[in-house]
């Protein structure tokens, strides 16, 4: 009954405000922080292709749990994808609260943004725009990862780019993720006052520099990685669908050093 | 002879049925140390008696002359025309406030509403005795309160805020800074729970999107970023 009254009046029976807006703000930041840091790790893992196909293969197998399941099981990847997808959906639902909700809001913000020409205001718009784009781009990627985790690998991922025609999606997704994530991390710092120190203004200038360095670093790494997969995909076009076989496998034989007679 | 500058001012009277919003163009000679106040006064005296704009102190103290100068909210009395190398300056009234006419907006009405909304006065259980000195507080605490109490309610943080322009009910940096001011003041007995009741929602501190145009444009250089982050941390920590 109290939920009915609170929902109707917008305040509790005792006349108090709900703690929910505070929680939503907290969880928007917490899920965003997780996703931004997750994408750093993700980029390092996928860029393993820049080292070698074998290295990328072993990273893939690591996530399939090869160290405790013989041959690995791609279903483990599906579980991880399902967790990340859930967090993305929560983050998107929470962040959507900040979007312009009608044409007048959009028009007022755009006019203001162009007039005032203020970097952080413009960065917010980029963040909102890339966030919206990721509703679709990230969903396309994650659905494939969820349903076909066994295709992840040096040839499988490369074939997906070229023979599966996913490279335009991945190019746009890369741009969206890197801008959205790095702007988001910067905004988290200024929003919650992290690393503020004695001089918040000075810290903010430094944070902004770090933010741009992170954007550029991950964009360059991402573009190089995308190019590497596309190159392999083009070379492997005739055998699309054929899985990668590691070139060499070192088998460790345990030897108890006992001399048998 | 100084260079010629061009001032384009938005002219519009929302109370007139025949008034059509347009930019009026004025060309005048720049003088040494010319501020927008000087330029606008000259325009009103010599070219257009009908041009409306607000001024009181002419020294950046009263906070009356906020306007959009080439899209950026500024105090006109502290804005030098020589800082605009191409000599063309576009003036518009501050958004978010009720437009009176041309460059004149009603910040006072909005600020009064904000003050009432955040209950911008000392809340204490003690009966004040005005014949006695106020209870002393630590000098550094007093300094911290005075530091954020320097706000002149010019409205620039409100006009600079993209969040506020999208969501008219947003309390704005001035409101959140005001809450931080009383939170820091030991004379005020209000708890964090009490402040939550004032700004603990999406029109208050949780609606702020940290665009920080408030911080970057405040003519008093108030630490708005830090104070909003501080209130956010305080209020989000409540159970």
Describe this structure in words.
The complex is a heterodimer of chains A (261) and B (239). Chain A is mainly alpha-helical and 261 residues long. Chain A has one domain: 3 helical TM bundles of succinate and fumarate reductases. Chain A has helices spanning 2-9, 20-46, 53-63, 75-95, 103-116, 119-147, 154-162, 167-192, 200-235. In chain A, helix 6 crosses helix 8 (167-192). The longest helix of chain A is centred in the last third of the chain and has 36 residues, at 200-235. With 239 residues, chain B is an alpha+beta fold. Chain B contains 9 helices and 7 strands. Chain B has helices at residues 36-46, 107-117, 139-148, 156-159, 162-166, 172-184, 192-199, 213-217, 224-236, and strands at 4-11, 22-29, 66-69, 72-75, 88-92, 98-101, 104-106. In chain B, the strands form 2 sheets. A 5-stranded mixed sheet of chain B has the order 2-1-5-3-4. In chain B, helix 3 (139-148) packs antiparallel against helix 6 (172-184). The mean pLDDT of chain B is 96. Chains A and B meet through helix 2, helix 5, helix 6 and helix 8 of A and helix 5, helix 8 and helix 9 of B.
């Amino acid at each position: 009954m109290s939920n009915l009254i609170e929902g109707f009046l917008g305040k509790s029976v005792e006349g108090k405000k709900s703690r929910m807006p505070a929680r939503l703000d907290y969880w928007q930041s917490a899920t965003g922080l997780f996703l931004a840091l997750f994408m750093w790790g993700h980029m390092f893992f996928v860029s393993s292709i820049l080292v070698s196909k074998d290295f990328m293969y072993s990273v893939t197998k690591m996530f399939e749990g090869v160290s405790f399941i013989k041959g690995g099981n791609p279903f483990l990847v599906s579980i991880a994808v399902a967790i990340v997808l859930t967090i993305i959906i929560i983050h998107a639902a929470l962040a959507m609260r900040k979007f312009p909700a009608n044409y007048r809001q959009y028009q007022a913000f755009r006019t203001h943004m162009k007039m005032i020409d203020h970097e952080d205001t413009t960065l917010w718009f980029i963040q909102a725009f890339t966030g919206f784009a990721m509703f679709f781009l990230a969903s396309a990627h994650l659905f494939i990862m969820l349903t076909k985790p066994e295709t992840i690998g040096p040839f499988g991922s490369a074939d997906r780019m070229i023979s599966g025609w996913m490279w335009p999606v991945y190019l746009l997704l890369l741009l969206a993720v890197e801008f959205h994530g790095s702007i988001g991390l910067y905004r988290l710092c200024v929003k919650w006052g992290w690393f503020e120190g004695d001089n918040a203004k000075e810290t903010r200038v430094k944070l902004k520099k770090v933010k741009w360095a992170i954007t550029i670093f991950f964009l360059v790494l991402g573009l190089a990685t995308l190019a590497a997969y596309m190159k392999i995909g083009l070379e492997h076009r005739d055998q699309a669908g054929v899985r990668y076989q590691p070139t060499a496998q070192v088998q460790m034989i345990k030897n108890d050093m006992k001399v048998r007679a | 002879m100084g260079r010629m500058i061009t001032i384009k001012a938005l002219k519009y009277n929302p109370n007139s049925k025949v008034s059509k919003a347009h930019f009026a163009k004025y060309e005048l000679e720049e003088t040494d140390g010319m501020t927008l106040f000087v330029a606008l006064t000259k325009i009103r005296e010599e070219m257009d008696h009908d041009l409306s704009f607000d001024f009181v102190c002419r020294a950046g103290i009263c906070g009356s002359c906020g306007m959009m100068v080439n899209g950026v909210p500024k105090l006109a009395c502290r804005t030098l025309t020589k800082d605009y190398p191409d000599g063309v300056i576009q003036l518009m009234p501050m958004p978010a406030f009720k437009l009176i006419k041309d460059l004149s907006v009603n910040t006072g009405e909005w600020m009064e509403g904000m003050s009432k909304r955040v209950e911008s006065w000392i809340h204490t259980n003690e009966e004040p005795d005005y014949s006695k000195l106020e209870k002393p507080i630590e000098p550094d605490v007093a300094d911290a309160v005075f530091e954020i109490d320097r706000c002149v309610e010019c409205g620039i943080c409100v006009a600079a805020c993209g969040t506020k322009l999208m969501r008219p009910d947003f309390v704005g940096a001035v409101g959140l800074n005001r809450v931080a001011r009383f939170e820091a003041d030991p004379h005020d007995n209000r708890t964090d729970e009490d402040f939550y009741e004032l700004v603990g929602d999406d029109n208050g501190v949780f609606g702020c999107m940290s665009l920080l145009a408030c911080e970057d444009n405040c003519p008093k250089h108030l630490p708005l970023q830090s104070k909003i982050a501080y209130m956010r941390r305080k209020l989000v920590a409540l159970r």
